[in-house]
Structures are given as structure tokens and as C-alpha cells.
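Structure first, sequence second, as always.
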């Protein structure tokens, strides 16, 4: 077993575990007991792979970005998660979890969402399966993210406003947890990243590991070698990065770059650069690294990209950072926006601003010229057009 994967107690080094209120114990314990058995069943694997192929459109291409490669003087491939149905990697996880929920006999799905991307991915698979769906969303986020609210409603999901506290993601999370406590038998809670109590981080990483599984095969076909020299991915909670790293964790020759959002600058007071600023603590049910004040209050994060605007990282990332296996770096709003425009002009691909953070880090690596580099293009930029237009004054 890899030292970078979860152990039988639910930990990655000192990180992970399940720090949950007593009343959630039955829900999480049922998942913990059942998830591996179910995921490894042949019928589960067959249905999962069939939906990834026919519904999501996998395998996503591994695209040799020639003009981008020329610009940086090395060989760069893009793993095109932006071409997935619903426009990002999140659907890989929600499909996995809906199939799991079905097999656990659940009749209802709940989720929380900030910008609405995870809510849309969840509402989508609930429509696909005809399962009742409630998405908790902060009242302020509901106002800010009207198109995603419309998508969820069109899919038949109920969008429930969280009206307490700052009326944003963390309040939506609290209300979703309260719902789950009150509905332990019939409801499954779909978490959208590699965060939360064990077994969520491991479960979500397994569903996203299809990203590196395909990358290895595709690289072998294209280059005769299954391992790149480096892979890069952006990190909010860390699910696309966990999927991109998964099958390379034990191949120490592969350098792993995890790119966080530095917002207006790491030390500007407006950032989401968790490893640079954070300390060990417990957030959303697991021990990890998070941005907090001296007395342990969670600090409000900031990034221009909603998907990276999270005050922590999943426990596996905390361990990859602490152990030195991964390089945890950060990119500012400005650098990301320029990199998003650059990819658009060089390759005709408008990336999500989240993904643009990973692209921006290319400029900081001193390439020798003979490297093979894979970047996880986690999502497409359609949802960010307003932001791009305002920023560049188009
Ligand atoms: C949600 C999102 C992210 C951040 O989530 P991770 O769990 O860190 O992958 C990154 N990119 C896109 C396009 C997203 O929608």
C-alpha cells in the first residue's frame, strides 16, 4: 500500500480521520463499511465505466498543445476535463456517488454548493437517475450565481437558501449537515471534493483517479512512455489534482505541482493560498491544513475563481505537502487571468479560471526543453466569460 494513500484507520500521515458530531456517526459509518465493497463490485465498475463513456464522453482527450509547448520550450499536454458533459471534472465524482447511493438504497440526495458547479453536477446525475435532489446554497451565492441556480432548477433539484451567518458556502454546508443528521436512513450527502470525514476523501479520489489512469494510457500511446516528468493541477479542495496525481504518487520521478489561488497576493489578506498561510486543524470533518486566525477561527478565503475559494485542502494534499512529495505553489488572480487569455490565443481553448491557475505556473518552471508535462485542464471557461470580459474590458 502506498504511503501516500489512506490507511485502514482513515488517515494520511497525521491528516484525515472523521471528526464528526456523534449524531452523524451512523451515516458516515455506513459509508465507511460499504464503500470499498460496492466500488469494487463488477456491476458497479461496469455501470460507472459505461456512464463515463456514453454520458460524460470519456476518455477525455490528452491534447498535445503545440503552440503552448513552443512558447515554453518544452512538450506540454492538456488533459481535457473541460470537454466532459457539464464542463468540468466534477461529474466523474457525482456519477460515482449516485451509483453508490443507489446501491445503499438511498432515495434522496443532498449537496452543498458555493458557485453552483458542484450543485449542477449533482442535480445532473439526480435527473439522470430520477432521484430526489436538494442543494443547499448560501442566499448571497444564489443571487450571484443565477445561471447555475436556473440549471439546477431545470434539472428538477430543489435549491434551498442558507440564510444564516455569512449566507455563503460554509453556511450551506452547515445546513446540509443538519439535513443529513435528520435523514440518516434515506439520504446520501454528495461531497464535491476530496474533503470531509473519512471515507469521503478516498472515495472522491478514487472516482477522479480515472484522470491519471487515462493519462498514462494516452501518454504511452503517444510517446511510448507512460510517465511524464511533471503534472500540474489547480487545487481548491483538491479533487482534480487528486485524480491527476493518483496513479503517479508512487512514481517518484514524476514531479507533482499543486497550484493554489493567491488571490490579490499571498500576504494581501485576500487569498486562498492554504499551504502558504495555513496551520493544522480540523475543518469539515477531517484533520488537515487550513487558513485560520491565532485562536482557530477559519479565515474567509478569497480568489477570483469561485472553485478555488476554499480555506482548506483535502487531507491527502496536506500529507503530500508535509511529506514533500508534492510541490504546493500559488498563482495570483492577475497571473491566472493572463494565462487564461494566453491559452485562448495560442490554442483556441478558453479555460476555466480555476484551470488557468495551473497554466500560469508554466511561466515559473525553468524548463530544459526535453520534459513531458501534463496539465489538468479541469474545466471550460464558459461559466467565466463575464469575469474575463470585465477583467480585460472586452
Ligand atoms: C470546482 C472546480 C475546481 C476546484 O475543485 P477541486 O476539488 O480542487 O478540483 C477546479 N476547477 C474547476 C473547473 C472546478 O469547477
Amino acid at each position: 500500500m502506498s504511503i501516500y494513500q489512506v490507511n485502514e484507520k482513515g488517515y494520511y500521515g497525521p491528516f484525515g480521520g472523521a471528526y464528526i458530531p456523534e449524531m452523524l456517526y451512523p451515516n458516515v459509518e455506513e459509508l465507511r463499511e460499504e464503500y470499498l465493497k460496492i466500488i469494487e463490485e463488477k456491476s458497479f465498475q461496469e455501470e460507472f465505466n459505461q456512464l463515463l463513456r456514453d454520458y460524460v464522453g470519456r476518455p477525455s482527450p490528452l491534447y498535445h498543445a503545440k503552440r503552448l509547448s513552443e512558447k515554453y520550450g518544452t512538450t506540454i499536454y492538456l488533459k481535457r476535463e473541460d470537454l466532459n458533459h457539464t464542463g468540468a471534472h466534477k461529474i466523474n465524482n457525482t456519477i460515482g456517488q449516485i451509483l453508490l447511493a443507489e446501491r445503499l438504497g438511498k432515495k434522496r440526495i443532498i449537496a452543498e454548493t458555493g458557485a453552483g458547479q458542484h450543485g449542477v453536477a449533482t442535480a445532473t446525475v439526480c435527473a439522470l437517475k430520477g432521484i430526489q435532489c436538494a442543494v443547499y446554497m448560501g442566499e448571497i451565492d444564489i443571487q450571484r450565481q443565477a445561471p447555475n441556480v436556473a440549471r439546477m432548477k431545470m434539472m428538477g433539484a430543489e435549491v434551498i437558501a442558507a440564510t444564516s451567518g455569512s449566507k455563503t458556502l460554509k453556511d450551506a454546508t452547515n445546513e446540509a449537515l443538519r439535513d443529513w443528521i435528520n435523514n440518516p436512513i434515506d439520504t446520501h450527502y454528495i461531497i464535491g471534493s476530496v474533503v470531509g470525514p473519512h471515507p469521503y476523501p478516498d472515495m472522491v479520489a478514487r472516482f477522479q483517479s480515472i484522470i491519471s489512469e487515462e493519462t498514462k494510457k494516452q501518454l504511452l500511446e503517444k510517446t511510448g512512455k507512460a510517465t511524464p516528468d511533471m503534472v500540474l493541477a489547480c487545487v481548491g479542495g483538491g479533487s482534480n489534482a487528486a485524480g491527476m496525481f493518483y496513479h503517479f504518487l508512487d512514481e517518484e520521478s514524476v514531479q507533482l505541482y499543486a497550484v493554489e489561488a493567491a488571490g490579490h497576493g499571498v500576504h494581501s489578506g485576500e487569498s486562498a493560498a492554504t499551504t502558504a498561510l495555513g496551520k493544522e486543524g480540523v475543518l469539515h470533518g477531517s484533520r488537515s491544513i487550513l487558513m485560520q486566525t491565532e485562536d482557530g477561527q477559519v479565515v474567509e478565503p478569497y480568489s477570483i475563481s469561485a472553485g478555488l475559494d476554499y480555506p482548506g485542502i483535502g487531507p491527502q494534499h496536506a500529507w503530500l505537502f508535509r511529506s514533500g512529495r508534492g510541490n504546493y505553489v500559488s498563482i495570483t488572480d492577475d497571473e491566472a487571468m493572463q494565462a487564461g487569455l494566453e491559452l485562448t490565443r495560442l490554442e483556441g481553448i478558453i479555460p476555466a479560471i480555476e484551470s488557468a491557475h495551473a497554466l500560469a505556473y508554466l511561466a515559473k518552471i525553468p524548463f530544459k526543453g526535453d520534459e513531458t508535462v501534463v496539465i489538468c485542464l479541469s474545466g471550460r471557461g464558459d461559466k467565466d466569460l463575464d469575469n474575463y470580459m470585465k477583467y480585460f474590458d472586452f
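Margin note: Residues 88, 90, 117, 193, 234-240, 307-308, 352, 354-355, 378-379 surround pyridoxal-5'-phosphate (CB under 6 Å).
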